[in-house]
Design goal:
Elements lengths: L2 E7 L10 H9 L4 E3 L14 H14 L3 E7 L2 H11 L4 E7 L20 E2 L17 H10 L3 E2 H4 L15 E5 L4 H9 L4 H5 L3 E5 L6 H4 L1 H10 L1
Parallel strand pairs: 1-2, 1-3, 3-4, 4-7, 7-8
Antiparallel strand pairs: 5-6
Helix pairs in contact: 1-9, 2-3
Length: 227
C-alpha cells in the first residue's frame, strides 16, 4: 500500500479549522488531507478522554484507501505516535511539528492548571519568546478567541504504547521554534526516549514559531507534501 492521505492533528486548544490553509495547499499539490476534529476540541464534548481522541484518529486512518502519513502538532505528536503504535501496518510515516511523543504510562499533556474540568489556554506568558514571536497582536487575539479549553480527561489521560513495530515507522520532526541541531541533541541525550529508539528520524527546519500552520501554512504544506 502507498500513502494515500495526510491526517492532520492539532495540538492543545486547536480545532480542525487550524489546518484550513495547510489543507488547501496540500490539495492544490494533489495530496489528500484529512483534518481530524478531536473529541473535546471542537465538538463541545467536555467529557472527552484521551482514548476518545485516539479512537477518532484511528477512525481517520482506517477510513483511508491505503496507508496514511499522520501529522501531529505539539502535544498531538503523541497522538500521532499512538496511532502508529496501534496501526503500524497502516501508518506510512509520522510527522511531528514542534513536539515529541510522550512515553508509555505518562500523562498526555498535563501542562497547565485545570479549571472546572478543562485546561483553558493559559495566555501568552508561557509562550513568550521564540514560540510566539511571529504572531502579531491581531493574530494573538484571533488565536485566543478560537482557543478551545482541553478536557481534563484528555490532558491528564495516560499514554499507552504496546507495539514495538512503531519504531520501524519513519519519523519526520519539523522544527519551528527550535533548531534541528537542538532536536538532535535532545534525542541523543535521552530527553526523547521514543525517538531515540526510532530507526528512521529526519529533521526539517521551518522558520516559524510554535504554530506554523497559522503563520506559515504554505511553507508547512510544502514540507508535508514532500514527506
Amino acid at each position: 500500500m502507498t500513502a494515500e492521505q495526510i491526517v492532520l492533528l492539532g495540538g492543545l486548544w486547536l480545532g480542525a479549522s487550524a489546518w484550513t490553509g495547510v489543507a488547501a495547499e496540500l490539495e492544490k499539490s494533489g495530496r489528500h488531507a484529512v483534518s481530524v476534529t478531536l473529541p473535546g476540541q471542537g465538538d463541545g464534548n467536555l467529557s472527552a478522554t484521551l482514548a476518545d481522541q485516539v479512537t477518532a484518529v484511528l477512525a481517520a486512518v482506517d477510513a483511508g484507501p491505503g496507508r496514511s502519513v499522520v501529522v501531529g502538532h505539539s502535544a498531538a505528536g503523541t497522538l500521532a505516535w499512538m496511532a502508529a503504535d496501534a496501526r503500524p501496518e497502516r501508518v506510512a510515516k509520522v510527522v511531528l511539528i514542534g513536539g515529541f511523543p510522550t512515553g508509555d504510562g505518562q500523562p498526555y499533556a498535563d501542562f497547565f492548571e485545570i479549571t472546572d474540568g478543562v485546561m483553558p489556554f493559559p495566555g501568552w506568558g508561557p509562550f513568550e519568546g521564540a514560540d510566539a514571536a511571529d504572531l502579531d497582536e491581531s493574530a494573538r487575539r484571533a488565536f485566543e478567541a478560537a482557543a478551545i479549553p482541553v478536557p481534563e480527561g484528555v490532558a491528564r489521560g495516560v499514554v499507552r504504547l504496546r507495539d514495538e513495530r512503531r519504531f520501524e515507522i519513519p519519523v519526520v520532526v519539523v522544527c519551528p521554534e527550535f533548531t534541528p541541531a537542538q532536536a538532535r541533541e535532545w534525542i541523543a541525550g535521552g530527553d526523547v526516549p521514543e525517538l531515540a529508539r526510532a530507526k528512521h528520524v529526519d529533521l526539517v527546519d521551518i522558520d516559524a514559531g510554535h504554530w506554523p500552520m497559522v503563520t506559515r501554512p504554505t511553507e508547512l504544506a510544502r514540507i508535508l507534501a514532500a514527506v
